[in-house]
Amino acid sequence: MSLQEYQFERCWKVFIGLKEDGLHYSHYQLAEYTDIKDPLIWREFLLDPRTADYISSEMNLIRSAAINYMVQNAPDSNSVGQSQLINALQKIDEQSTKKDGPVFIYSYVPLNDNQIGAENIRQLSSPGVKKIGENTYVLENEVKE
Question: Which residues contact 133 (CB under 8 A, 6 or more apart)?
Fold first, then answer.
């Protein structure tokens, strides 16, 4: 099943309306507690990268706020458990804000005279890149005509 954009928009409105509670609901709970009763629609909504990024960033903010609150109140507490909890949450916070995975950096390097004539070279026209002169290319959104 693929989520249509109108379904995403409808789910987004309902999801945002749930405020903090919606962040920890499963797709079954969302179907039970909202007017959108199909758990498969909610499943696709929760798996959508836009939703996953939003939930992740919200949870990071909530976690950071909880850590700050506990640190602020730490002098009033004699609990060893609280300091251990603060330490554990800080480690989780550090791990969750670290970005992992491949990084792609796109660049264009013009061909020199030897490369232009080489048999194994093909010049491609990419979407978003506009040729404005001989061997001169710019990104389309940077073209000032």
Answer: none
